[in-house]
Amino acid sequence: MSKNKYLNLLVIMLMTVCLTACSDDDDKISEPTFSHITITPEKEIYHVGDIVTCSIKRTSPGIGDLRDTSYWWYTSWWFTDSEMKADFQEFSDDNVNTSSPITLTTPGRVTLYFFGRLEYPHWDWRKIEIGRTITVVE
Questions:
Q1: What is the pLDDT of residues 91-126, one digit of tens each?
Q2: What is the reported pTM?
Q3: Which pairing describes strands 102-103 and 51-60: parallel, antiparallel, or unpaired?
Q4: Of 64, 84, 75, residue with least CA distance to 104
Q5: Cα dist from 125 to 45, 71, 109, 117, whole Å
Q6: Are 70 and 116 in contact (CB under 8 A)?
Q7: Across the strands, what pairs with 57?
Q8: Residue 39: per-residue pLDDT
Q9: CB-side exposure of 75: number of CA atoms within 13 Å?
Q10: Alpha-carbon distance 55 to 103, whole Å?
Q11: Of 2, 32, 66, 95, whose CB count within 10 A is highest?
């Protein structure tokens, strides 16, 4: 090969490396982090009819151009009941999000969920989903 072909090949390889090494928007995004779900009152076994509240603490705000957020609570049995709506809640000044009172209506292993939708520029969004499973008896 001639020197020109080697130089052209070298230039193409360098351009490829430069383009692939450019940072993506994902490198500038760090999602918020959260503690585990706390259930009040805390029990080993719950009974149908018990009323609980759930809370979670945001331990870091995350990094990035966060445009909008929404957070809500729901339970595993709400999926089958069209009357049950998600429980949208905001974080307090001390970074705690607390659910409305939840009446336990279904026996078995029940999962209580905290869900978040984080919206970033360019129609990018991320999901936060944290669950805690409890045992409910009749």
A1: 999 999 999 999 999 999 999 999 999 988 888 888
A2: 0.71
A3: antiparallel
A4: 75
A5: 37, 13, 31, 7
A6: yes
A7: 96
A8: 97
A9: 25
A10: 15
A11: 32
DSSP code of 100? P
DSSP state of 28: G
Burial of 73: CB neighbours in 10 Å, binned 0-12, 13-18, 19+: buried
Sign, CA torsion 12/15/17/20: negative
Domains along the chain? Answer: 26-137 (2.60.40.10)
For the chain, which residues score pLDDT lower than 50?
A: 23, 25
Break the chain down into helix, strand, coil percent, rounded to 5. Answer: 20, 45, 35
Q: Pull the structure tokens for residue 1.
A: 């090969």
